[in-house]
Amino acid sequence: LKRYVTGLLSEDDMEVVTVEAPPLDVPTGSKGVVVKNLYVSCDPYMRNRMTHHELPSYIPDFVPGEAGDLVWGMTGWEEYTVINNPESLFKINHPELPLSYYTGILGMPGLTAYAGFFDVPKPKKGEYVFISGASGAVGQVVGQLAKITGCYVIGSAGYDEKSKFGFDDAFNYKKEQDLEAALRRYFPEGIDIYYENVGGKMLDAVLPNMSLGGRIVACGMISQYNLEQPEGVRNLYYIVTKRLRMEGFHVFDYYDRYYRFEEEMAGYLKEEKVSYVEDVVEGLDTAPAALIRLFTGRSVGKQLVAVARE
Ligand code: NDP
């Protein structure tokens, strides 16, 4: 419906538009479903809904131009998803920014970076920060937030061209024979905060390079996910001698802060204080290969799959 109608209804009062699929609007606790419409009905009562009534009618008036909210949340690798708990969806308040950002910097990985960096180690200006997995969905955001905080930031990633993202410096961990020595080169005064995305050999190399009282955010350990037997960590005793604090953290504990985060991050994006690199492949069929790229190090930036543009 384009506008409320007076007199004889004409075709021009209506238009066919393409919109993003709206979220289910069902009360909390009830079950929602998504249906695919095969036939739709034309009924006389619809004309009544196209008139604006001052007093409530037996059925609500249509709202001209009404479309659903854009949302993000845990859906599936599919074109339509049944959402049984619509309260788990988040409304997208900044559709003027690229919608794909809601899979990354404005969604779960962005909140992971934000909460994991600000809440866990409580960073201070001038501190030395090291980020592994620095070009990824989470890592590139952590590095930029650390720069905004006034920290000195070094990242590591798997290809030379991946390794900058506006940090003070970065290195390709695959090219370093001795990771521990590489870190000593980049952090002669020690690492105050290590944002851990990788684990394994990298964690082992980081521990001796931490400064006294340093903090490690245990966000993820991707180097271990495909191993049948996790690697051991030789240098764990440095946690004692260097009085380190290593803290595990999960983004699921921070969703109550999402909208505050969204506002702040959208502001940074609009002011161009942060940017975001994405690696977008097209079509659901490419999703399995795209997921594998995360573990072979092929992706640059946030890996995602465009399923439908409208
Ligand atoms: P990324 O976008 O960083 O993708 C994964 C990247 O990890 C790859 O591109 C690859 O980059 C690197 N990688 C893969 N295998 C290895 C390896 N064996 N050794 C070193 N690097 C490797 O992923 P995300 O940013 O989404 O996630 C980063 C980390 O954060 C993961 O560990 C993930 O599990 C964790 N995470 C934790 C959350 C929490 O709440 N705690 C929430 C979300 C994510 P490269 O070319 O550099 O090797």
TrEMBL record:
One of its GO terms (molecular function) is 2-alkenal reductase [NAD(P)H] activity. The keyword Ubl conjugation does not apply. Residues 1-66 form the Oxidoreductase N-terminal domain. The keyword Ribosomal protein does not apply. It comes from Oryza rufipogon (Brownbeard rice). Gene3D superfamilies: Medium-chain alcohol dehydrogenases, catalytic domain, NAD(P)-binding Rossmann-like Domain. This is Enoyl reductase (ER) domain-containing protein. PANTHER family: OS12G0226400 PROTEIN, PROSTAGLANDIN REDUCTASE. Keywords: Oxidoreductase. Homodimer. Residues 137-259 form the Alcohol dehydrogenase-like C-terminal domain.
